[in-house]
Structure formats: C-alpha cells, structure tokens
Amino acid sequence: MIRHFKTIYLPFLFLAIWSCADLYNKSNEIIAITASVKTIEAGNTLKLYCEATDQDGDKLSYIWESGSGSLAQNGDSATWTAPMLTGIYYITCTVADDYGASDVASIAIKVVTHTMELQGRVTNAVNGQGVSGVTITVSDSLIVTDENGDYSIQFMFDGEYDITGEIDEFCPYNGHFEIPDDDSLDIFIFNFSISPIPEPGEIRMVLNWGAVPRDLDSHLLTLEIEGETHHIYYGNRGSATVAPFVTLDTDNTQGFGPETITIKQSYEGTYTYYIKNFSNDETLVNSSGTIQIYNSPDCDGATIAVPNEGNGKYWYVCDIDGASGAITVVNRIQGLAPTP
After folding, report:
1. What CATH number did the domain enclosing 332 receive?
2. Is the pTM of this model over 0.90?
3. What is the dihedral of CA 315, 291, 131, 236, to 10 degrees?
4. Cross-strand bridge partners of residue 120
5. Could you tell me the residue range of the domain that residue 142 belongs to?
C-alpha cells in the first residue's frame, strides 16, 4: 500500500511544480508617457498618452493622477486641464494587471500665462527676395509661407526652438532661435533665408542671425588666383566671370541676414571665411548666428552655430579646401581678423 502511494505521488508533485511555474505573474512596464504639447497656457487642455506592456499579455488598468489641474481619464489616455498658475506640473500614470504587478511614471508639463505670435519672412539667400511655398516646421506646428515669403504661428511660448524650412530646388534650412521670457512681448520676429541648390562646382556660404547686431559682414580671403589674392566683402563684391570667380551675393545691414558668398569656381588652395560684427550693437555670442555651407549638387557641407563664448568683433568660421571642398571648422570669436 505504501509503495503504491509513492508511485502516484511523484507524478502529482511534478505536475504541481509545473503548474506553479506556469501561473507565476510576470511584470509590466511603462514604455513612455507623451503629451500633445509640453508647454501650455493656463486654463487650456492637452492630451496625454501612456504606452505600456505586460510580459504575460494581461489586461492593464490605468490610473492618472495630478496634484493640480483636472484630469479626465480614458484608459491609456487622459485629458488634462491646466491650472491658472504658472509653473512645472507633474502628471503620473500607474499601470497594473489583475495579479499585483504594477509600474508608475510621470511627465512634466510647463504652464504659462502669456503667449505670443511668431512671425517671419523667408528669403532667397542669393537675391534676397521672398520665397513662397516654403514648408516651415517649429515644434509641432507646420505652416507654409505665403506669396511674399511671410509666415506666422500663434500661441508660442518663451523657450528655445528648432526650425526647419523646405521647398523643392532649394537646400533645406535648419536653424535655432530662443523666445525670451518677456510678458511685454506679443510678437517675436524670426526671419531666415534658404539657398538655391548650388550649380555644379559652386560652394555657397549663407549667414543668418537674429535682429541684432544689425550689421554682420561676411568676408572671404582667397588663395592666389591668376597671380593675385583677393578679399571679398561689401567693399569688393567680386565677380562670377573673372578672377576671383567669387561673389558677395547679398549684404544685409538691418539684422537677420542673409549675408551670402558663393565660390563660383574654386582653385587648389585654402579659402578663409569669417564674419565681422560691423555695427557692434550686440555681441557675436548673442547674435544667434548660424552659417550653412552648401556644396553642389546635394547641399552637403556644414552647419555652424556661433560659439557661446569669446570676445571680439571677428568670428573665424572655417577654412575651405578649394580642390576637395573639405571644410575645416575653426568656429572661434577673436579680436583680430584672420589672415591667410
């Protein structure tokens, strides 16, 4: 009788061990919490989304919480109405299955009481004329320039932004600007220019910057061409058909740019490119200057932002190898003009 009991006991023991392992509840995890916007005006609403997984594939429940404002929950999404006071607010989501596993995460939302309108004009970097039909992207906003090249985006907040501009037959533009925390400011202006795709063999340097300094000047020092070196700037705009085969295409003295120089035909040796703060009514560090260098035919080259430190009127940007088009970035602000 005892032997018979042992014979049937062991299979049931193995079955019990297997069943316990099979019933063990695995964890769940929040992958991300996202919001329709990360900055919102007081009293307005935004949408929240929680992406989560459960290793067992169990059904998950979602609990949203916030110490301020109001929440309308709808499973893995929620609508939050911001409070009337400015500040940084945290909204939390907890996910759980029916067997005790849970995870929690939060997202920070900035609430402001003042918004403004972003306005600007997109111009052709070579001739300075407005360009219509440019698709502009700023954060989650997308807009197309009108027939004059103008654009506007409402309900902008203070902070830093990346901006892009794209249209056929032009090189894509990538820039950056910062809207100051200033309750007296209702409109923020940001103009920029885009370059036509360079012709074969051309190298183009395009400078865009902010409202101040009013006058930044582009300078290019050439190697020896037909027995002579050349200095291209507003006092010597060059020529496309005779030496130095370099042109200053646009010269802007009222802020924003563009200041554009095009090497029409390059020669073996080094070209030196720099910027001078001519008006000197603001420092180069605070100019929001961005230079895009384009080679043909793919608009490859370099994007160079002004350094965030340094003193002096001169921004030594780079050297360009005339034979290969290779760019050696220097990106230094200094007190004296660069020399070849």
Report:
1. 2.60.60.30
2. no
3. 50
4. 151
5. 114-196
